[in-house]
């Protein structure tokens, strides 16, 4: 599976003007094709689709332990208990 590339321009307004950043993101080709199909279906940009997906998934992703937590064996019991209460 060859990775596809999604190049996005992220725009943000700041007091000093417009913050323009370019970032290359790499996706498996089949995932990129699926994102493109959805962008076409919604008549939206690839960037918009990925931004919306991040907004939806952000809370769940923040629950993942960090690599440092896994490597150091730090217990995340308090986070697990909180996650179990919310389910």
What can be said about the biggest beta sheet?
A: 2 strands, antiparallel
User: What separation lies between the terminal Cα atoms?
Assistant: 35 Å
What is the alpha-carbon Rg in Å?
17 Å
Overall, the morphology is elongated
Beta-strand proportion: 25-35%
The percent of residues in helical segments reads 40-55%
- Tally of discrete structural domains: 1
Any overview of this molecule?
This protein is an alpha+beta fold and 87 residues long. It has one domain (3-86). Helix content is 53%, strand content 28%. The chain contains four helices and two strands; from the N terminus they run ββαααα. It has helices spanning 29-42, 46-61, 67-72, 77-86; strands spanning 3-14, 17-28. It has a two-stranded antiparallel sheet with strand order 1-2. β1 and β2 (17-28) form a beta hairpin. The chain is elongated and about 40 Å long. It starts with a strand and ends with a helix.
How are the SSEs ordered, and which strands pair?
Layout: E1 3-14, E2 17-28, H1 29-42, H2 46-61, H3 67-72, H4 77-86
Antiparallel strand pairs: 1-2
Helix pairs in contact: 1-2
Defining key terms:
single chain, 87 residues, alpha+beta, two-stranded antiparallel ribbon
């Amino acid at each position: 599976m060859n990775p596809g590339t999604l190049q996005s321009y992220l725009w943000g307004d700041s007091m000093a003007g417009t913050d323009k950043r370019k970032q290359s993101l790499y996706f498996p080709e089949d995932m990129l094709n699926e994102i493109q199909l959805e962008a076409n279906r919604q008549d939206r940009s690839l960037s918009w689709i990925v931004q919306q997906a991040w907004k939806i998934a952000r809370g769940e992703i923040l629950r993942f332990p960090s690599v440092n937590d896994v490597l150091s064996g730090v217990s995340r019991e308090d986070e697990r208990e909180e996650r179990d209460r919310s389910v």
